Amino acid sequence: MKRLVNYKYADLVAQLLALVVPLIWAVAGKDVSNGFFCYTTVGIIQIISCLFNKSFLPQTLKHKSRGKYETLLSVVVMMGMVLGFVVGIVIFSGTMVSGFYAVIIIGYMLLLLTPIMDLWYLWVTCIEIKYITLQNDQENTSKYTLP
Question: pTM score, two decimals?
Fold first, then answer.
């Protein structure tokens, strides 16, 4: 259980770094592409974190909203793929008007949704750390109680 709580703390630190470092870099560079890099970095870290948690975190220690978050993350990844596909079609086919509206709509949805998702995932991680710590404390106290 000690390794699991250490992993969750490392997961939390990685999420915070993935959120803060690119954001500072984007603000300092004042370049729009740095902002997109920030979103991409946070998304990749959260996808990796979700995969590790799905594999190694016991079901009893998972927060109940983790499944909803993972579903929403899948939808956002699909929206990002659609956005990339539409941008590619717009660039290569020259149909600017309809493609432009799709890019704007999906882009704004992602722009507004992802910061909320970042905070939600940080909250879920903190709650799961609490679950693991409580279970770890219960296991340690049960070892030392008299029969």
Answer: 0.74
